[in-house]
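Hi U.,

Before I forget, here's the chain from the pilot set. I'm dumping it here mostly so it's searchable later in email.
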Amino acid sequence: MAQWTPLEIADAHIPHVILRYGMDKNKKDSQCDSPRLISNGVDKVFIENLTLRGIHGVYEFEWKEPQEFVIDISIETDLSRPAKSDDLADTVDWQPMYKIAKEVIEGPRISLIEKIADTIATRILQNEKITSASVKVRKNEILDDGVPGVLITRTR
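Structure:
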């Protein structure tokens, strides 16, 4: 019988998980290792389509009334511990990310959506459990034929 060695396969549908399986050369068939999941620490917590209203923009007509901003936030962190513990203290809670975005959008006027996205990402990265933050900001009401926006990623 052929001797098998451990094999690692990256799951195409779950890029942050590696499935390790195989058979130890020193074990009989009945003692074959069972499949197990191993996290490589690149898990994500996200909020999508967060819709908030604020007064931001370069042009004077943008300052008269609050306009709609749609925000997507995605952070990278290791979620292996909270996945086992089922304890909120072990994870990166999405609620502080929501509060940061809300404070920025409802706060003082900022001219560029690039600065809005950077401000949100920078504040989110103050949480040391987070290794990377991506923030997409769109202005849904500014164009009749499309939706302009920016997507930035900041890494620790």
